[in-house]
User: What shape does this take?
Amino acid sequence: QVQLRESGPGLVKPSQTLSLTCTVSGGSITTNSYYWAWIRQPPGKGLEWIGYISDTGSTYYNPSLKSRTSINRDTTKNQFTLQLRSVTPEDTGVYYCSAGSVLWGQGTLVTVSS
Assistant: This one.
C-alpha cells in the first residue's frame, strides 16, 4: 500500500522559503496514476490546495499561491517536494502531502515566525 511521509523544518522565518519533502513508499511516483499533491490547513481554517505534480511530471498550482510555489520531484528517491517562497505568518499551518486525495501523509506543522 502506498504511504506518504512529510518532512522538513517546523519553523521558518518570515520572508524565507518553506521547503518540505514527501517520501513515498509502496508505490512509484512515476507509474502510479495519482497526482501527488500538497495541501495545507491554517489554524482554525479549512483545507487549501497548494498544487500537485502528476506521474508524468506536469504541475498545477493554486492561482493564489502560484507566484510563490514550486513543486518538484526526485524520481531516484521517490520523493516530491514543495517550496513556498517569501513566507509570512499567514503561511503557518499543517502541511499535508497526498496521493490523489485518496491517501494522505500524517501532516507536519510549519510555523512562520521570527
The radius of gyration is 13 Å. The first strand starts at residue 3 and ends at 7. DSSP finds no helices and eleven strands in the chain.
